[in-house]
């Protein structure tokens, strides 16, 4: 590629030429934002806007994760916002395809690697469901529920219905904690326990529930809680069957006075 040119088109700006020669090596976050904006804005506007973006969002990661409304308030135009959102979503789509193409689900770390990019910077909780077939292959993923900073309304019936509609035989749940601390709450534990119970009834296994925090995660399966809930269900089932057996036990027929005189 000729220096300062891109396939014979308009001359490259200095940052564009630097990137063409050595990628992002040596770039600071403000320069990376300026480079991105240069794809859709005149060069003279990019430096000022990039500086304002850094002042507002502090770093590249928060800039890319910002909402369209936040980007608009900084002064970015719709073409800029569209370009930023496109670049932010592309890696998530690549990671999604990569994990779906895996021959088999193996570990919570795989799920964390796939989901951490899309969930770690969100300011609200998002509950994802990952659907698997009977060979433990991932067949689909979806964002089923969205909530606020500290709460997310989850309807177990919709989870079960979505699994049946996809012919899934196993599920993995995942959601983020915007606080950065992946420690499960009491409601997280209750939901997971209830879904393990419901899954046993409809023959759809819950393999894991993964909570994404700041560069770390909590796995219910790794901590032994999924197995604990499975054991709890089986114990309740056995006890229930035993109690049913007792309630339906046959008592010896009573002999009436009339019968005894016969």
Secondary structure layout:
Layout: H1 14-22, H2 29-37, H3 43-57, H4 60-65, H5 68-74, H6 78-100, H7 108-119, E1 126-132, E2 138-146, H8 156-165, E3 170-176, H9 186-202, E4 205-212, E5 217-219, H10 225-247, H11 257-260
Parallel strand pairs: 3-4
Antiparallel strand pairs: 1-2, 1-3, 4-5
Helix pairs in contact: 2-3, 6-7, 9-10
Poorly predicted residue ranges = 1-6, 246-253, 255-262
Per CATH, the class of the largest domain reads Alpha Beta
Secondary-structure element order, as H and E? HHHHHHHEEHEHEEHH
Order of strands in the sheet with the most strands? 2-1-3-4-5
Percent helix range: 40-55%
For this entry, what is the oligomeric state of its chains? single chain
Output the structural class: alpha+beta
Q: Under CATH, the topology of the largest domain is which?
A: Cytidine Deaminase, domain 2
CATH architecture of the largest domain: 3-Layer(aba) Sandwich
Count of discrete domains? 2
In short:
This protein has 262 residues and is of the alpha+beta class.
Walkthrough of the structure:
The chain is of the alpha+beta class and 262 residues long. The chain folds into two domains: 14-91, DNA polymerase, domain 1, CATH 1.10.150; 102-241, 3-Layer(aba) Sandwich (Cytidine Deaminase, domain 2). The protein is built from eleven helices and five strands; from the N terminus they run αααααααββαβαββαα. It has helices at residues 14-22, 29-37, 43-57, 60-65, 68-74, 78-100, 108-119, 156-165, 186-202, 225-247, 257-260, and strands at residues 126-132, 138-146, 170-176, 205-212, 217-219. Strands 2-1-3-4-5 form a five-stranded mixed sheet, sandwiched between helices. The chain is elongated. Residues 1-6, 246-253 and 255-262 have low confidence and may be disordered.
């Amino acid at each position: 590629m000729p220096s300062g040119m891109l396939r014979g088109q308009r001359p490259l700006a200095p940052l564009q030429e630097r990137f063409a020669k050595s990628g992002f090596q040596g770039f600071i976050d403000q320069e990376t934002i300026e480079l991105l904006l240069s794809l859709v804005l005149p060069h003279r506007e990019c430096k000022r806007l990039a500086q304002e973006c850094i002042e507002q969002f502090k770093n590249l990661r928060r800039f890319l994760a910002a909402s369209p409304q936040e980007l608009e308030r900084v002064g970015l135009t719709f073409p800029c916002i569209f370009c930023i959102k496109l670049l932010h979503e592309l890696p998530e789509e690549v990671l999604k395809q990569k994990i779906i193409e895996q021959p088999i689900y193996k570990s919570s770390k795989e799920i964390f690697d796939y989901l951490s990019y899309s969930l770690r910077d969100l300011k609200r909780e998002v509950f994802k469901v990952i659907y698997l077939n009977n060979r433990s292959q991932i067949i689909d993923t979806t964002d089923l529920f969205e909530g606020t900073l500290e709460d997310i309304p989850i309807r177990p019936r919709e989870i079960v219905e979505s699994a049946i509609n996809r012919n899934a035989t196993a599920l993995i749940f995942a959601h983020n904690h915007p606080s950065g601390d992946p420690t499960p709450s009491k409601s997280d534990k209750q939901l997971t326990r209830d879904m393990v119970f419901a899954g046993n009834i409809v023959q759809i296994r819950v393999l894991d529930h993964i909570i994404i925090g700041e560069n770390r995660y909590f796995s219910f399966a790794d901590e032994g809680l999924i197995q604990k809930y499975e054991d709890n269900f089986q114990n309740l089932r056995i006890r229930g069957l035993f109690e049913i057996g007792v309630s339906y036990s046959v008592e010896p027929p009573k002999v009436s006075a009339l019968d005894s005189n016969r």
